[in-house]
Batch of 3 targets.
Target 1
Amino acid sequence: MTQLLTRLFVKNHQDLKKPAVRTAYGNLASLVGVVCNLILVVGKLAAGSLFGSIAIVADGINNLSDASSSLVSLAGFRLAAKGPDEKHPYGHARYEYLAGLAVSTMIMAIGLSLLKDSALKVLRPEPVGFSVLSVGVLLFSICLKFWMSRFNRQIGEAIGSDTLIATAADSRNDVITTAAVLASTVLCKITGLDIIDGLMGVGVAVFILWSGWGLVMDTLSPLLGESPDPELVERIERKVLSYPGVLGVHDLMVHDYGPGQQFASLHIEFPAEVDPLDAHDLIDNIERDVRRDEKILLTIHYDPIVTSDARVGVLRVRLNEKIRQIDPALSIHDLRIVPGTTHSNVLFDLVLPAGYTGDRAEVLRQLREFVTQQDEHYICVIKVEQSYASAHREK
């Protein structure tokens, strides 16, 4: 069914890297969500009101929130497709994240309302009617939501949309909550305990609140500036290191302005003896190739490394081994030796992962002591930096 819908409603559906195709996929998923959820809303509100079940009504209102969420997602995809303008040179792709945050907030608000209504039903239980119609509506809802979960996940994974993947998880959760409502309807009929309906309504509301909170945190993370995908970091570093002459990479930063709008910068270590024009030409080639393959605008800073001085090479190997012994999460780069009449300065950058909780002073002490042990005329000068890519390791 997913393939049929995409072939019918998404032009050039196989060209997933095109922004217009990605937007078309998002629009399709959102519209399907609106239609399917409205069908469920009508059926559940009718059945719940007819037979006096707060649990079925609560489940129907949950579907109404899902329909509203799909509308917000649709608006988010359409706004995110707007190109750069004078005030927003990086585009508008973050609207998709904002849409996800709005959806999550709506889910939380509806969950609180349902919790209040269900709690009142627990305090003042009312008779719950039972019919084949209400059972049929709930069974149909379970089947439809299961399909919607698969549908949204397939499209979300295809176009890399966290919003649709979250929608898929929400549909999966709806399968669980509706199954619980169905169980309460049957139990009320078997036991005659009408309080079960209110209790199940409370359970559904709590589950909605729990899911909504998780979605809030998921959508806030990219807006706050989360660490880049470790696989992306590894691909970029591996690709850059594959070019002849590149000795190392460090200080990789990835800035996310929304799906399809990523910018990155990094430093490469390159032999200082190479002609600057040749080095510049190679850097241009790397930036162009990364943009073509990863759809990321990469800016590279060139760090010249003296390779003709054997002392630098030997000290780099020894320092890398020492830093691995101290803590494998640490790394160094930009090592250089500046000779003088009475002493030589050994300078390098020490990179700590974000949130590092180790003893920095002790690490610096051990490194300075180790450098001095290599040559009594060495004076160690260390610059401490933070890594902005969690998967980064010194190559």
Target 2
Amino acid sequence: MRWTDFRAAVGQRINVEGIVFSARVFFNDRHLSLPHVAVRDIRCIDWYELHRRGFKGVVFDKDNTITVPHSLTLWPPLRPSIDKCKDV
């Protein structure tokens, strides 16, 4: 089976690229995989301040973080914070 066939067969069930990237970060840049900020929710984050301090990106866990479980729709109260994050 070719790689592209495998990816098509697996589809959304397994995020192979995400797993490979996470393993690469864990083994090569472990400090990037440690939480740097803990907040009640993302509405408490000052995105401009994070950027000013040198942060280049953030990682969100979708379920119970920015959506309700098993949903693809952003939880509406978080929209302004997500928009600020994208702007920064």
Target 3
Amino acid sequence: MSDVATELRGSAGLITLNRPKALNALSLDMIRDLTAALLAWRDDARVERVAIRGMGREGPFGAFCAGGDIRFFHQAALAGDPRLEDFFTEEYTLNHLVHGYPKPYVVFMDGIVMGGGMGISAHGGDTSLRIATERTKMAMPETNIGLFPDVGGGWFLARCPGRLGEYLALTGHLIGGPDAQAAGLADGVLPSAELPALWDSLGDHDGFEQLRERLQRPPAPAGDLADHRAQIDRFFALPTVAGIVAALEADGSAWAAQTAALLRQRSPLMLHVTLEHVRRARHMTLADDLRMERGLVRNCFRLRPGAAGETVEGIRALAVDKDHAPRWNPARIEDVEPAAVAAFFESPWPRHAHPLRGLA
């Protein structure tokens, strides 16, 4: 069976990510299959709405998508595999397709929703429905592997209330369904036990309308982010990463100390790149942010080729050798030079030759 299963049921096109042993991490083939299905259904009058879910290890639901296939990134970067370039160009094109999709796009964000999983869930248009559950575990944890929150992460995180975007981008903090709704990254929280019946109802127009009405009810009770919202907005509005960490370490509260310690574990260089990325994206369209991100991710693998790069080293430590001891360069947040950060934002291509120049 394919890693992306599709079916027509009534007036709905249904997609199941079917790579449960890898928590549905996206491969290049999966990105191509998703793109093909969405393009075909976009122009198919029989299809009035599209829904997407993930297959868990015990059956449908329980996991949505853990992101991109980082083991592939590591192998491809070391081998000089050109499919690495194709992966990001096609993934970001898919993210943009989801954002502008002209039909309702329903996402069942049950279980893990990280990285590339956010790219195919967070971008739905005005008619999208993003459903979280009590099992949702959402994060953009890229700074932990020497990367930055891509897949349009700069754009959607920058649009979270207050400074939640900077906080989630820099720390990679894991949030549940209520916090996802409070951050504007989910449209509602429903019990996971109800998902099979809701999925089955989507082939019928009335079933879809009833689901939409349920998600218009009052939001779920506030999650953990609400307890620290004032601190998040105060600290993560500061102009620099070094300033944020210094203020956290001087604060004296347990939450501030824990947050500072978490930031000290991330790639210092990519923390600086990420903060600049989110703040630039706040004033961009999604298409322009994705073009910026496409240059950023190429620079992640090309400014320091092979094993010398932060991303390859971060993936090695987390997923290859699993020693959880990345050798970041530089090792301290205070030692990152502005010129090193600026180099990431120099596009490798002129605008007329950019691989995402066609995004509207």
